[in-house]
Amino acid sequence: MLHFAPYSVLSILALTTCFLLVCVFEFVNGFHDTANAVATVIYTHSLKPRVAVIWSGLMNFIGVLAGGISVAYGLVELLPADVLSPPNGDPAVPMLIALFGTALAWNLFTWWFGIPNSSSHCVIGALIGVAIGDAFLHTRGLGNSVDWSQIWKVLRALAISPILGLIGAGGLYFILKHLVKDPELYQPPQGEKPPHGWVRGLLILTCTGVSFSHGSNDGQKSIGLIMLTIIGILPATFALSPNAGSHIPQIAPQAVIAAPLLQKYDHDGLRDEALASVERLQATDPTKVVASQLRADIYEVLAGLKSVASNAEASAAEKKSAKDISGALRPTVEYAPWWVRLLSALCLGLGTMIGYKRIVHTLGEKIGNTHLTPAQGASAELVGAGLIATAGYTGLPVSTTHIITAGIAGTMLGSGSGINPKMLTKIALAWIFTLPITITIAATLFYVISM
């Protein structure tokens, strides 16, 4: 499958299949994660379920369109350069099927059992699995095929953000309880009666914030996956930015500056490949650019420069130079057309409008020993929205599910009611097993399909 000719019938069929997979994944991401935003307004009867999910879906839609692409490419760069951009333009069908199939299957499995689980974890595990499968396929050491520095950076964000959610939401609830004495804030919902004015407004506001920030962060993940699909299968059209023409004349001069840095510091044993790419970039003729080869060479050099920037032996000036060169090269290959953003926004927004009931029930009644109160829901969502929005604009993928779930647990602890150990054990086990399971499945799928 690695040798389908671009634009052949088989390539078009593969593109269609992978497009459907990424759209379905983002749709499932919407209804899997939507409960994090709508749980409090539905559970407290602040909004009717249909109104809540439509409003949340709209905010997710706007969040995707308003977000950047730093998270999108922060994720896809977990892949090694030869998988991320095949140098001969061959379609990356095994990579795409392994990635989407694995993440989608695990997402649906956890949703079916009503377990809040992270779509980000699913995608990241599948990406790591593809990188490991590629290492085995080419009999390379894992250090030469997996960008561990980028993986640790992403995993640190995933690990730290729920802790911040737990502490932040618990602390905010504690402060709120001591400053605001309205008893309605601290009582579980009674019948179908909605909270009174300002309490209801607060819950709608926090729902809006989480929905928008979820779109701005998670929407970027699907943007990255869609770009992987269209670039891997139709490289001649999509390998380079539509505005690449203005950047191409700067590539050769930047390659000249990069050469001594790459020569001095070994790039995980792949220095020869990076230097060969530098030589080709130095000879770049703007009138004779082969898009797929240029993209592949740029990513080889970017990988080497990233290694220099993180090398303890490199001087501050060398690290700055490596980052500056990377910044000059990236606009040529890192972009997202307006229609990709729109497609991502539509899939996420539409998915948000269904499938929420299972996980709303879990968040509202099963995390703590008592039912969720308006103050607890608002505290968890206010802190969650802030953390997710911050991560979205700093290029770090975080898990909306992890942050909100941890935040609700923090408010339960802050209220003194305690948490439900049985449900928290289920959630923790899903968190623990997501990475090893998705890594194993994706690595196996990629290796088998690529043979």
Automatic annotation (TrEMBL):
Protein name per Swiss-Prot or TrEMBL: Phosphate transporter
Transport found in the keyword field: yes
Q: Which residues cross the membrane?
A: 6-31, 52-75, 95-115, 122-142, 154-176, 197-216, 222-240, 427-449
Q: What is the reaction catalyzed?
A: phosphate(in) + H(+)(in) = phosphate(out) + H(+)(out)
**Pfam families found in the cross-reference section:** PHO4
What domain of life?
Answer: Bacteria
A GO molecular function assigned to this protein is:
symporter activity
User: Which organism encodes this protein?
Assistant: Acetobacter persici
